[in-house]
Amino acid sequence: MKKVIGIDLGTTYSAIATLDDLGNPEIIPNPENNNKITRSAVYIGKDKAIVGDKALEASITEPKKVAKKAKIKMEDEVVFSTKEGEWVDGKKGYTPSQVSSLILSKLKDYTSGVKKAVITVPAKFAEASRAATLDAAKLAGLDAELINEPTAAVLHYANLPGVKISGRVLVFDLGGGTFDVTIAKIKDKKVDVITSRGDKHLGGEDFDQELIKIIDKKYKKAKGKGLDVKDSKLAQTAEKIKKILSSKEKVTEIIEGPKGPHKIEIKREEFEESIDTYLEKIKMLMEEVLDESKFKPSNISQSLLVGGSSRIPIVSKIITKIMKKPPVKGVNVDEAVALGAAIYAGLQNKTDLNSAQKKAMAKVDLTDVCNFYMGTLAAFQDQERQQWGIANTIIIPRDEKLPCSVTKTYYPLADGQESIQWSVTQSEGEETDKEFVTIIHEEKISLSKKSLATDKINVTYSYDTSGKMHCVVEDERSGKKTEKNINITETSKSIKQLKEDLDFDIE
Q: Looking at the chain, which terminus has fewer C-beta neighbours within 10 angstroms, N or C?
């Protein structure tokens, strides 16, 4: 029985992995077709849901009932409407967590009833998106922990048999909908993450959309009328062309449209020009990571590829140009994240392992970092304007080694102050302006009735490797402590109600 599993819940494809009897990670293939990756597409019918390639097949006849890209919708307050066939705001439908839970349930069925899992998320997933992912796991009947995708990938690379990966490495993770760049240090099988940056809205599906524009333009020029650019079959054709262009200089494809079939030719050069804006974003993010880490390309021993879109030739050229050396090849980039997640699952659940697996995990170690600035709002006196204002103050800085615990001391504004408004903030930059931070929790806390302006109010934030934060606000005068675990966001419906809404069989 497979007792530990790691899941790469992807925008376009997902995968599940476990540890073999000797402690080596291995992909669990889909028992229906033996494929090692599963389409992150879900057909939602009246009494059944279909996950994977069969869902895409169903999209040809019932396109409005097939939900895709749930992962990149996690932070949005949207639902998938089977009437409109789109992610919409404020209408009846299925949340990103619900759709993702159907994918997770399908993957879980590849095992023998495993209940514990490690699920991967982009490094730049904020608290709301992480919470939504955990909700999806609960709906699928999984007790889950999270790990950042590039961190999981570097764990896999560090444990590759017969391949020597060591020193400082740059992990380039370009998936279907998200992009992360991570710098880490590998020594033996020990991984020390130094920094991560990312774009949660950049990936291979953006490239597909540019190809759709090219196809539509060529068809319209030849036939006088354009295509339905939202057609699911056209999207599949664009993805197919993208993959072919990774190995060939040009592709010829017959396109079905309102004015009949038409043969079009797309050259790799055309495709590369069409995605130039995205390529520039990739370059900028890589350079930002190097600049902020204060490392030069010469300080990085190897570049490691992750994600299906990293196969695109122009992407490899960009990496080679910036890093002054080509990236490491020979690894299945579609599987790396899931395999690394399985290793992390082994690290976190050693009691579920056999003796050989425990021996293998004893050689592995991981140190991750906080990917955001975590802080609180506090009053300050604006000397220039001669008035009080509210500013964000940082408690846990970005790139702080995890697990960590940081305490900062604050004070009441005046004697006799009866309460404070406590806010937990999250930001990508070291922001002081409260308008540029996300408040992930806030509550009113009563103070001692005899409070003085000199009384210490100690705020402690503790953060672990799975992205869970424990907060404590202590009023030293009264000894009162207010504690909060910041790992779950409130939803409009309970988990129980969300589960009841998914009352159908999964295929």
A: N
What torsion, rounded to 10 degrees, do the Cα atoms 34, 39, 41, 46 define?
0
> pLDDT-based confidence at 347, cuts 50/70/90?
very high
Helices 53-61, 232-244: inter-axial angle, 10-degree rounding: 130
Overall fold of domain 204-276? Actin; Chain A, domain 4 (3.90.640)
pTM here?
A: 0.93
Tokens read off for 299 = 């300080």
Q: Could you read off the pLDDT of 162-188 as tens digits, one per residue? A: 788 999 999 999 999 999 999 999 998
- What distance in Å separates the CA atoms of residue 223 and residue 207, rounded to the nearest whole number? 24
Looking at the chain, which residues constitute the CATH 3.90.640.10 domain(s)? 204-276
> pLDDT by residue (tens digit) across 304-330?
999 999 999 999 999 999 999 999 987
Closest CA to 173 of 197, 192, 137: 197
The contacts of residue 332 (CB under 8 Å, 6+ apart) are: none
Number of residues that this document lists for the chain: 507
